[in-house]
Amino acid sequence: MKRILIDCDPGHDDMMAIMLASSSNELELLGITTVAGNQTGEKTYQNALKTLTLIGRTDIPVARGADKPLFRELTGAPEIHGVSGLDGADLPEPGVQGVEQHAVDFLIQTIMESGTPLTLVPTGPLTNVALAMLKDPRITTKLERIVLMGGAVFDSNITPAAEFNIYVDPEAAKVVFGSGVPITMVGLDVTNKALFGFDDIEELSRLNGKVSRVVAPLLKFFAQANKDIFGFDGAPLHDALAIAHLIKPEVIKTRNMNVEIETEGALTRGRTVADVYGISNRTANTDVALEVNNSLFKELLFQAIEVLDTR
Ligand code: BDR
Ligand code: CA
User: What is the atom index within ligand 1 of the atom nearest the CA of 77?
Assistant: First the structure.
């Protein structure tokens, strides 16, 4: 069983990542840390607690982290995730509080005290992860791998050059990509193809269980926002694909290459500069996802919701 930590900013697709991870027999979710991103630090933290309350997994510790990027003001995504960060349905009020510890200290302590190397799955801006690496660089030798949702080789969403998570805190991303920890980058090249269609959402709502009946309208909101802004025919469940890869590695295909982060470009802030053709001679540091099996991904999502409905 793979032991993981999720650092996230829920967010509809972060919520699906949590659900997928916490219902899988292949993964042990040791804790969740939250970061400002899709919405404010307070809202993403509350959304993580509400998600765990909905699925009856309040045993999983949640630690609240950074309220803003390392050096910049927060850019949120209310047009995609709504004013709450999880618009579309009423989630239960949190039935539990998070831990007292700051996310950065929680990450350091959990990683350092783990008997076996952990896999860290960041699905928001990389602020907490970078802060943890800067505060205690020993964690970089203790992690098995970082499997993150972020970046893109050929695609973009927040600007024509960049993906949201990396754009929001490019300096943090630079720390993480330069850390020496093996990285798998699950970026928009695959996640924008990992669409959960309007027909899939209909099918989900027909399950009408205690989780599916809440998740279906949430995903409908998210899918509609993605249709209005990007013309997509469904909800790209970006963050959940990173978790799916840990459950079934073959859900994506990756290629190892060098990836550097642009922090200064006037038009290209937050671009993940990926050396697809090996023309830079820089050392490969990232397994970049380039292909996705969306039907396998959707199978995993349906299975997870069905498990959570009956728990
Ligand atoms: C990423 O940005 C956020 O809005 C999503 O939750 C996802 O992590 C996609 O670019
Ligand atoms: Ca996210």
Answer: 4
The range of the structural domain enclosing residue 69 comes to 2-310
**CATH code at 154?**
3.90.245.10
Specify the DSSP class assigned to residue 193: T
Active site residue 245: no
How many CA atoms does the CB half-sphere of 44 hold within 13 Å?
Answer: 34
CB 251 within 8 A of CB 245: yes
Three-state DSSP class for residue 147: strand
Phi, psi of 8 (to 5 degrees): -145, 175
Count the domains in the chain: 1
pLDDT digits (tens, 9 = 90+) for 250-294: 999 999 999 999 999 999 999 999 999 999 999 999 999 999 999
15: pLDDT strictly greater than 90: yes
pTM of the model: 0.98
pLDDT at 1: 93
| Ligand 1 mutation target, pool 7, 18, 20, 38, most atoms within 8 A of CB | 38
Straight-line distance from the first to the last Cα atom of the chain, in angstroms, rounded to the nearest whole number: 20
Alpha-carbon distances of 6 from 10, 32, 92, 128, rounded to whole Å? 11, 5, 21, 11
Centre of ligand 1 from the C-alpha of residue 85, in Å: 11
State which of 239, 241, 243, 271 you would mutate to test the pocket of ligand 1, scoring each by most atoms of that ligand within 8 A of its C-beta: 239
* Closest approach atom of ligand 1 to CA 9: 6
